[in-house]
Design brief:
Elements lengths: L7 E8 L7 H11 L3 E5 L10 H5 L3 E6 L7 E6 L4 E5 L12 E6 L2 E7 L9 H23 L3 E6 L23 H12 L3 E2 H5 L8 E2 L5 H4 L2 E2 L2 E5 L1 H4 L2 E6 L15 E6 L3
Length: about 270
């Protein structure tokens, strides 16, 4: 049974970049920021290695889709177990990557994604990224047709706009900001979904990722690739959105910072 919450629901996303290596940082973030729902990417562990007991000890129940050594996604909820709707995307039966997990929790349809990076491009990895985005678009259309309050949150590995990166020149050849990647992302928005962080920060300059190399964090050489897309039913309930930037500067931090949205419980 879920504990009584305030008048809004906080849904957060954190690419943890290895849940075993960074479990203390993750627990620290959960206890300090107390999201109602937390979506994790790059847990990098098989299902049996997922530290569910550690989350239960601080009041979170979880579902997860693991994979040995890389990828992997999870959805945590405070005081309530997420009810799984779907894991993985249809369209490529041979695709065994653990990148998609969908659940009903706290009256919301929550989709946690870890979209393929796509580098090096051009090449098969970039082709896979674009196919995956088209498969995601198909699933998002199905969710939209249900007219449920939904959000698709996680690491999209797409820099949507020029003002979402410290230097466009630095990443000009990267799969994250190729015209095809951006066009595929725009198609998601044109289908009726709202980029919460983008909407509330039209001037840009809000980053979610800083590379470990070349002093990127110290120089604030970052970019925005972690996004929360809201269905029309949920966009009207958006209260706030932000990035827990300071967590990127802590010891043994992930190279991502958590992102979050605050949703009014009722429209």
């Amino acid at each position: 049974m879920s504990e009584k919450r305030a008048s809004s629901i906080k849904v957060a996303s954190f690419n943890i970049n290895g849940i075993k290596a960074r479990l203390p940082r993750l627990i620290e973030w959960l206890e300090e920021t107390q999201p109602d729902i937390a979506c994790l990417q790059e847990i990098k562990t098989q299902d049996e290695g997922f530290p569910a007991a550690d989350f239960a000890a601080i009041g979170y129940e979880a579902i997860w889709h693991g994979q040995k050594g890389f990828n992997g996604v999870a959805i945590l909820a405070r005081g309530e177990r997420p009810v799984e709707v779907q894991r993985g995307l249809a369209g490529e039966p041979e695709d065994e990557h653990s990148r998609y997990l969908e659940a009903d929790v706290m009256g919301l349809r929550v989709v946690c994604i870890y979209l393929p990076n796509g580098n090096p491009q051009p090449g098969p990895k970039f082709d896979y990224k674009l196919r995956w985005m088209e498969r995601l678009k198909t699933r998002m259309a199905q969710i939209a047709a249900e007219e449920v309050p939904a959000l698709v949150i996680g690491d999209y590995n797409v820099i949507p706009r020029d003002n979402d990166i410290w230097s466009t020149r630095a990443m000009a050849d990267d799969a994250l900001m190729q015209p095809e990647s951006r066009a595929a992302y725009r198609r998601l928005l044109h289908a009726g979904w709202t980029d919460a962080l983008g909407l509330l920060n039209p001037r840009g300059g809000v980053y979610t990722f800083w590379d470990y190399q070349a002093g990127a964090w110290q120089r604030d050489h970052g970019f925005r690739i972690d996004h929360a897309l809201l269905s029309p039913e949920l966009a009207d309930r958006l209260v706030a959105a932000g990035v827990d930037k300071t967590y990127r500067g802590r010891e043994k931090a992930s190279d991502h910072a958590p992102v979050w949205v605050s949703i009014a419980e009722h429209a």
